[in-house]
Amino acid sequence: MRILLTNDDGIFAEGLCALYDALCQDHEVFVVAPEAERSAVGHAITLSDPLRVKRVKRGNVFFGYAVNGTPADCVKIAIHELIGPEIDLVLSGINRGANVGINVLYSGTVSAATEGVILGYPGLAISLDEYKEPDYCFAAYFASILVDFLAQNFLKNPKICLNVNIPFLPANKIKGIKFVRQSTAPLIERFERRVDPHGNVYYWQCGERFTEQDPDTDVVALKRGYITITPLQHNLSDPELLSKIASWQIEF
């Protein structure tokens, strides 16, 4: 397959390199990724500044293109200018840290995969539930297994978009795979108030906690040691509410 590989942690991120190494022997992999970390930028795109692209080497061999934009920018410019439309899959990851619950909306990793779907290609986002010292070996291996499975079963459907989260556990400790919905439970967030040397007050977002308890959600299943797979869509319309408000009579 021809795979477009991107992320939001930057083109030299260990997770992206691990994924590339796991796939490049069996697939044609094209790397177009942000030149630096672009975490939590959501589905932002760059309109007021030019996009600059640099050819990047890894081990003195051409590796891919670094873009001074967002993950969604990378997917757009890859397909329209750098790689061309002959792509079978847009693959984003491996992200450092999970992308579950409401955080899916903030995630640049997930947004790159959904951008692929918007442009007419299947999308797959892979994240590992670890921030400090992640080892991506098993996550990359599982991603390669999943890519091969999808290639034989579902990748002819350009609307498919999967968000995959892998627990940071030894392979023999992972309980299995669960197909679950995205949690929409609110977060408990915390900000720390600080004062700089000049007496100016500033705030640092320093923690969040999920309130979700439903075992059939990505948040809880991942916490319990399961690989979670959640199908996503970018249509934000609420059909149930739409049917209710269609009868509204608003005068102007």
UniProtKB/TrEMBL annotation:
One of its GO terms (molecular function) is nucleotide binding. Coiled coil: none annotated. It catalyses: a ribonucleoside 5'-phosphate + H2O = a ribonucleoside + phosphate. Keywords: Cytoplasm, Hydrolase, Metal-binding, Nucleotide-binding. A divalent metal cation binds at residues 8-9, 39, 95. Residues 3-184 form the Survival protein SurE-like phosphatase/nucleotidase domain. It is found in: Cytoplasm. The keyword NAD does not apply. Binds 1 divalent metal cation per subunit. Pfam families: SurE. Its EC number is 3.1.3.5. Its cofactor is a divalent metal cation; Mg(2+). One of its GO terms (cellular component) is cytoplasm. NCBIfam families: PRK00346.1-4, surE. Nucleotidase that shows phosphatase activity on nucleoside 5'-monophosphates. Belongs to the SurE nucleotidase family. This is 5'-nucleotidase SurE. The gene is surE.
